[in-house]
## 1
Amino acid sequence: MTLLILGGTAEARDIAAQLEGRDIVSSLAGRVARPRLPVGPVRIGGFGGIEGLRGYLREEAITAVVDATHPFAEQISRHAALACAMEAVPLLRLERPGWEGTPEWNWVDDHDEAARLTASLGRRPMLTTGRRALPHFVDVLADHEVLVRLVDAPDSPLPGAWTVILGRGPYTANGERDLMLGHGVDVVVSKDSGGSFTWPKMRVAADHGIEVVVVRRAPGPVGVETVTQVSDARSWAVRQI
Ligand code: NAP
């Protein structure tokens, strides 16, 4: 009776901590150089698509899965929904609520639209959409003085006018204020990640009249039972194991 937690988020680490001592295994994609590890057994790396995940579920005798991955990790959630359905393994999606924002926020459907809108809104944007989204912004914002914050250094060269800083949340309001005002940021670009870790930049933007561009979440896989609270996911997991 082993529970698989698809992780890479604070919520996934919380559930693993709350289920410490039970038969669980957490899975990380291996995207960042020094991941924050949950307590308990951990495996790292992709499964090899839907078929790979199906094989893993069978070989490791996984009896239930909690998909606690990031709201923008759409592919692994889709794979989990399909693999679990095909293997008749119960699946719960834990997804933190999105941000409500303010009427001033500029909502867009994807990173390309975010790039175009950002180019028209300011000259000194701050990009916080992650390393994999960078190709969508590089050409459109090549002559903007972009401040880009990443967990790990970019794997390809960025325009000369861009400044890269490395960091990962949680961030403080004071730290974000110093960073954003110090750099003269006039637009903040973010995914609708939700949660509190990366929220302070939005607060600073609201306080200082800085434009905000937010990439909407895509709808998740249909038919997957979903909760927003770690406590509910924990209760479900305990029932399964
Ligand atoms: P993604 O696009 O949905 O997934 C791409 C591939 O990465 C998947 O098909 C799978 O490879 C592998 N993968 C993803 N999550 C995995 C996991 N927890 N365990 C094992 N393999 C996993 O994912 P992503 O957006 O690159 O995110 C990767 C990880 O970073 C996720 O675990 C997510 O929770 C975390 N994260 C993502 C974001 C974000 O903004 N996207 C932010 C913070 C944290 P195979 O097909 O080979 O199985």
## 2
Amino acid sequence: MQYGVNSRFTMSESEAITYVKNRQDWFEPHAELSCREIGDGNLNYVFRVWDTHSGQSLIIKQAGPVARISDAFVVSTDRNRIEYQLLREYNDIVAPYVPKVYDYDLERHCLVMEDLSDLKLLRSVLLSGAFYNHYASHMGIFMATSHVLNLDWVLGGKAKKLKMSQFINPDLCDITENLVLSEPFYDCDRNEMSKSLRGFVKALLWEDDQLCHRVRRLKWQFMTEAETLIHGDLHTGSVFVGEAQTKVIDHEFACFGPAGFDLGCFVANLVFASLHHEVKGQDKAYFADTINTLLMTYQETFSTTWRAHNLQDEALLSYKLSKILKDSAGYAGCELIRRVVGIAKVADISTLEEPLRTLAERRAIQIGKQLIMAAEQIDTVADFMTALNHNPQT
Ligand code: SR1
Ligand code: MG
């Protein structure tokens, strides 16, 4: 089928059905297939195809040449290959925590994978007040396992460099470098915030040279430190949960980068959920416990996986654990700030009515700044929790 870079690039729902039928025999020959485009992310198109009789289903995820939210973001369709490759990798090393992946089509820039429609997005679950416990340790295991198994020490220097070449992701890294690690920290045209917040942001962030210096260091680190293979966009909208299951999705931002970027991004998004409830007068203890469990499980799994790979140097392990925690605090701070000041928002905050929204936004900025400024002093999970719970009087 011929198609160019235009509206025909993306499949229609009926084309998705034809595509599935022609591509492979995933369904019985006479299956009656239906399809719905269900994507709600910023970048891609997601088609759910199901057999109306058996209920059997699958997902096609297609990458267009520009971001779904705006043509201004021209993003290479190679992100779809990267997502497929990472899913293959995760299906080998952390299989319980990712969807199964069935196929990748270089020509149509789409991949076919397991349908997780019986699960719910963690962000929506948390906003609805359903407070599960299992996902914190699952996410700790998922991140620590995949991070350790992609360190130079485990892969070997040569294999690691070859693997890095498969995860060169310039367009998606560029989005992160701009949207997360630059624009929120100066008066950039693309920032989006209410007028009432501008003065606060200017005084607290843009005019603080020390803070801006620290963020520049974090950005530089993200750009240059190929510590391990990271998911690269691990927020609560990238995680599905059920009663006992946790599944990480949306792997297109994958790259070699600092491990703390994943951990920090996920922590920050738990803080957003916490703020959503806190400004409504609800208790935040559940979220503090969840973050503590996440960080503790990460460290335990990191240590056991490290030792299982005969990395005997305990001093090096301690150095690494503390370094990753420091980085997590820094990147959590950037994520907290960018979702308020920058262009990409989170429902945890945007669904709040005023004056609660502004209250939550200010708290997110304060906590974000606090984490960035305290990062260097953080060595233990207890230090991290103290920095997180500090109540700045600004
Ligand atoms: C143009 S993409 C905007 C944001 O959506 C993605 O989920 C990433 O978080 C990115 O920063
Ligand atoms: Mg995403």
